Amino acid sequence: MRLLLLSLAGAAIAFAQPVTFGVRVGEPLTDFVSTVQNEPIEGILGQFSNFYSNTRPYVLGPTVEFRLPAGLGIEFDALYRRLNYSGTEVTTNGLASVTTAISSTSADAWEFPLLLKYKFKIPLVKPYVDAGFAWDTLAGLKQSIRQTVGAITNTSTTSTPADLNKKGTSGFVLGAGVDIHAVVLHLSPEIRYTHWGSPHFENPAGLVTSNQSQAEFLLGITF
Q: How confident is the model over 204-214, as pLDDT tens digits?
């Protein structure tokens, strides 16, 4: 993928065509994190869990496109989303022993797609398709846990929770949209699909998993 990155960047510089820049905003069409509610854990007496995804339903960030001849272009985005999930686990080992653990996990997810784009030669409204690779990394990852055993409560925080599989991952991207030229602006609504090579989160008990297949609706506003 590094070789592809260098090749695409070299092509953009060599042809020295106009550059457009702006922002992309959108909404995820799939959940970033999948959670499980009210599921007993097999093999442990009286243990029940409730996990909920509170990830904010937006994606946004800057975008730049290098226009090439023959309707081709190279696009690079830096897309941000805020993810959060929380959970409550209660374990009973008889009437006299109850353990409650309440956790909250949050992070900033940054996605960097590098795409080769082709626009069909139609005036004003140009349908397009794009494909390429993306890299995703988590920043500011934090999990807070408040555990109560009987009358004793302890609180702890960590940047490497047990749910974490990888802070960084990569995958391939496919998309399709329409470029609408409106005076000095280009409006580009797009449906984009990304498949990641590995999940960010993978709870040992299967209570929390980040989805490897993700779909998004994005609107590009460029100059």
A: 878 899 999 99
